[in-house]
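Below is how a single chain appears once it has passed through the pipeline. First comes the sequence as given, then the structure the pipeline wrote out for it. We keep one example in the README because the format questions we get most often are answered faster by looking than by reading.
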Amino acid sequence: MALLKFIDHVAITVADVERTTQFYDRLFGAEVPFDHAPDGRTLVRTVIIGGAVRINVHQQGNGIDLVADLPTPGSVDICFRFGGTIKEAEELLKRNGIEIIEGPAPRIDNEGNQAQSVYFKDPDGNLVELMSNT
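Resulting structure:
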């Protein structure tokens, strides 16, 4: 029996919550179901991107204790499964003026299937991978 089923969400630390939200919204569409802003300043924002992926966006220096030891903007390396072809992923990035730093490159997904990936950086320098099986 598998004890872990899937990742529910990932938390990333960013220099500017608004800038990060706008970036992911421009690329994939973003919903913001929750802001933790006790004094009017957003400390943590829940962002649903592409309708299915949840990221908790933490403002750097937000004073929240329940975080990694060294929460730093630009320290995440994350891969998203892309619902279209790798060519469509390339076109999406190019259309939005985002530099592809590697790819398309052959990869193997977590189920052992052949895939292709393209890599780029988000506004904080996090490495983002879009992986497609089609």
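The first strand starts at residue 10 and ends at 14.

See the next section for the split statistics.
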